[in-house]
Please model this.
Amino acid sequence: MKFKFYFLKLSVVMIVIFLLQVFIRGFTEMFVLNRKAYQGEVWRFVTSIFLHGSLTHLLFNLFALVFFGIILEKTIGSERFLIVFFLSGIFANLIAVNFYHSSLGASGAIYGVLGVITVLNPFIMVYAFGFIMPMFIAAILWIAADVLRVLGFNPGNVGAIAHLSGIFIGFLVGILLKKRLKIRKNKKQKVNISDSYVDSWEKKYLR
Model:
């Protein structure tokens, strides 16, 4: 299984697109997620994943994508990682567009990555909220923080609903992958020995 560094390639694409946002007037408006996505401009469900509202927004998402992306891509493979990223991001946008006037950023996709890691390796130690903690604890805190934002506690300019949608899909995909990887592992561990080999061995060593 070839490791293709998709987490790094996605990060480079985000950096390039952010530069286009800075230097090309009107670029963000052409690709940001808003109700126009339901009026024929469906590309916005995908393109908005790569847009960011500020340098700080970009840096936070890049840190998360690199730190957690390499973990997941090594665990499930490059192609599956890419599927998780886009599936989570698009689903998060399909939900978020109904709640926000406009939105942008890779957070929904990254939260999908977090959800899959939480299911597949809940006890891996990660850096979150300024501390080292098990992945499942970090996931609980991320979810709790976004639930509080949705309820109106310090909402800020954060797409909490997109976060929750992304991690929900991540949990579902993680459950499916865990079953599939377990089945594959069991198949690899099982050794099949043909009857003819057993017969020849008995004739050679037991008779």
The longest helix spans residues 160-189.
